[in-house]
Design goal:
Shape: globular
Strand content: 15-25%
Bound molecules: NADP nicotinamide-adenine-dinucleotide phosphate
CATH class of the largest domain: Alpha Beta
Strand order of the largest sheet: 12-11-10-13-14-15
Distance between the termini: 11 Å
Radius of gyration: 19 Å
Number of helices: 9
CATH topology of the largest domain: Quinone Oxidoreductase, Chain A, domain 1
Length: 303
Amino acid sequence: MRAVVIEEYGGPEVLRLTEVPAPVAGPGQLRVRVRTAGVNPVDTKQRAGYFSATASASFPLRLGNEYAGPVDQVGEGVGGFAVGDEVFGSATGQCYAELVVVEAADAVGKPAPLGWDAAGGLPAVGQTAYTALEQIGGVTAGETLLVHAAAGGVGTVAVQIARLRGAAVIGTASERNHDYLRSLGAVPVAYGPGLVDRVRELAPGGVDAALDAVGGDATAVSLALVADRRRIGTTIDTAAAETYGFQRVGGRTTPGLRQLAEWCRTGDLDLPSVTGYPLDQVAAAHRQVEAGHTRGKVVLRVG
Ligand SMILES: NC(=O)c1ccc[n+]([C@@H]2O[C@H](COP(=O)([O-])OP(=O)(O)OC[C@H]3O[C@@H](n4cnc5c(N)ncnc54)[C@H](OP(=O)(O)O)[C@@H]3O)[C@@H](O)[C@H]2O)c1
């Protein structure tokens, strides 16, 4: 089968599409024929060697942590799945490929309303947003949540979950994404100097919780606007979280993905903006993600 590998750390040019042996589903596993695979900022950091000091990797190294596609092979002892079932989920470091082997326990049925592009892009950002909101205490009716980088992948899902939970949401983005944020149910606000004042105009008493998906200046803004530091979370700035006593948030949750799938099934949740690249244009996909201004998600269209 074809898969993307890197033989060394470096820029997007090190990404190479090549032939590798097809994996086989073992006990408790499924093999999935990948239709789409999401591209996340962590993939670009891994490609660049950002984690090389703390995590050893052997080359050739595979990339990609989320997939969507039909089941192609069912491993021994797996119940509840059959060849042809449409599934999606997370699987670490192998999804930029035509076939992936995944733990059946972590695969979730793809909701019919979700197209393949959205399905391949939802698991990582969806689970991150779901877990992050739980970790900052959940958000409920009557509360206001501030989401930094609300137009990105994590932000797109976090806004919708918070709205489903009944909270009001203020989301930061550049002007070109303000209509997009309104369509998700957030009140948009421009980031940059003066952000604290602009949020206070919208929420004179401050906000109850903040989710930071961009880092940098977002930390000071969250600290100025949220009284309880346990209700501030960041998906990116571990150092700031440790320094100021708020939370580094995120993580995988299969029950969370099942809930997200259910919301998609009922039409309450969507990934409405996805940019797709063919697998052989993976370098272009990485360049877009690294530019840091994707609306929604980037996915690879594999098959
Ligand atoms: N993806 C995941 O599953 C995941 C999991 C764990 C951690 N994380 C981390 O969380 C962060 C966000 O991930 P993501 O996938 O949501 O990223 P992303 O989709 O690539 O984020 C792009 C968004 O960031 C916005 N943005 C850029 N600069 C901004 C600023 N100064 N203030 C506010 N918004 C700004 C852009 O909006 P404009 O175009 O309007 O500027 C764009 O919509 C990354 O650092 C990632 O490593 C992600």
